[in-house]
Design goal:
The chain has about 375 residues and is α/β, with parallel strands linked by helices. The chain has two domains: about 10-185 and about 295-375, Alpha/Beta hydrolase fold, catalytic domain (Rossmann fold), CATH 3.40.50.1820; about 190-285, Rna Polymerase Sigma Factor, Chain: A. The chain has helices at about 130-145, 155-170, 185-200, 220-235, 235-240, 260-275, 280-290, 295-300, 300-305, 325-340, 360-375; strands at about 10-15, 25, 30, 35-40, 50-55, 80-85, 90, 95-100, 115, 120, 150-155, 175-180, 310-320, 345-350. Strand 13, helix 10 (about 325-340) and strand 14 (about 345-350) form a beta-alpha-beta unit. The two termini are about 30 Å apart. The model has no long low-confidence stretch (mean pLDDT about 95).
């Protein structure tokens, strides 16, 4: 643990939308009560104008920085960005990150107990959207006594949530940093997600979503879904540089169907480690929310979607990201420029693929730090 770490932190919980005041969803259904798991770093100032909301990607959670105990081997998923003196400086800013609804790390989701039945929601949990995730976050921000956020920052699915904040709550944020994201998932992206879901459905332990009642989990199906998704997060160059055709602890092919290549071992590890911390039904719900996200369809055009945005915006992308490539990020910039909105754009030349924003790099840190300082000061 370094001096620039936020140190030992705790997960907090906020519950709202108690019946009969359930939260309305885009599907027309209602959900409540809702609990959001969240973490905060730094302190809210007297003016309450230094709060930054971090939004997470599909497999993320509220644990963006710091450690839960001295024994933790790994810090939060964006630890290198958040902390004293870091790009998102907790000496200056009050940073919030919550687990989305439908998640499985403390927030209400399909594995939660439905108070109306006393049983797990499973697939009776209502289908949610990115807009529903953000609507739930506004209740948390209200609870924390914050009228206006200094910034909302998120990559990938977190970027979708950031765009939703910009469009639906223009007077509640001063700035936004959507990155490595898109205004709608294309057909290829939807196809990858559907293959992942089919892998879960095909697992005999899925039991039509009721696996918790059987005391099992569709671990193999979820692992395959994660393996497939993880390939989309990397670039061909990154995979070649890291693995090439290296064999895994052997000097020649086994001439059977056992593990031969290092890349096979890596993907199996990604799959097996993922099932230890993620719920299969949550994966179904969150991936479907990403599929439904389509600003052009919702507003008629991207230009119309961004017409009322007030936030100063920084968009950045990566040359090697083929899941949400630079052109999709530039579409956000063009739509904002139509209305002469203040927007900056940076493309970073990095070889790591879509996951580049999760890998420490000095250029990204400097750009984010400079933009936030400009907005704040």
């Amino acid at each position: 643990m370094t001096e620039s770490s936020v140190g030992i932190i705790e997960r907090k919980y906020f519950t709202f939308a108690e019946p009969p005041n359930e939260m309305p969803l885009e599907s027309g259904e209602k959900l409540g009560p809702i609990t959001l798991a969240y973490e905060t770093y730094g302190a809210l100032n007297d003016r309450r104008d230094n709060a930054i909301l971090i939004t997470h990607a599909l497999s993320g959670d509220s644990h963006a920085a710091g450690y839960y105990s001295e024994k933790d081997r790994k810090p939060g998923w964006w630890d290198f960005m958040i902390g004293p003196g870091r790009a998102i400086d907790t000496n200056k800013y009050f940073v919030i990150c919550s687990n989305t609804i439908a998640g499985c790390q403390g927030s209400t989701g399909p594995s939660s107990i439905n108070p109306a039945t006393g049983k797990h929601y499973n697939l009776s949990f209502p289908v949610i959207t990115i807009g529903d995730m953000v609507r739930a976050q506004t209740h948390l921000i209200d609870h924390l006594g914050i009228e206006k956020l200094l910034s909302v920052i998120g990559g990938s699915m977190g970027g979708m949530q950031t765009l939703e904040w910009m469009i639906e709550y223009p007077d509640r944020i001063a700035s936004a940093i959507p990155h490595a994201t898109t205004t709608r998932l294309d057909a290829q992206g939807i196809a990858f997600q559907e293959v992942g879901r089919q892998a879960i459905y095909a697992d005999p332990n899925w039991h039509a979503g009721n696996y918790l009642e059987y005391g099992v989990a569709p671990e193999q199906g979820l692992a395959v879904a994660r393996m497939l998704a993880h390939i989309t997060y990397l670039s061909e160059e990154a995979m070649h540089n890291k693995f090439g055709r290296k064999l895994q602890q052997k000097e020649r092919y086994g001439y059977d169907f056992s593990l031969d290549f290092e890349v096979e071992s890596y993907l199996r590890y990604q799959g097996s480690s993922f099932v230890q911390r993620f719920d299969a039904n949550s994966y179904l719900y969150i991936s479907k929310a990403i599929d439904y996200f389509d600003l052009k369809q919702d507003y008629g055009s991207l230009e119309a979607a961004f017409a009322k945005v007030n936030a100063k915006t920084l968009v950045f992308s990566f040359t090697s990201d083929w899941l949400f490539p630079t052109e999709q990020n530039k579409a956000i910039v063009r739509a904002l420029k139509v209305h002469r909105k203040p927007v900056s754009f940076v493309e970073f030349d990095l070889p790591y693929g879509h996951d580049s924003f999760l890998i420490k790099n000095e250029a990204q840190e400097k750009v984010v730090a400079s933009f936030l300082a400009h907005v704040y000061e």
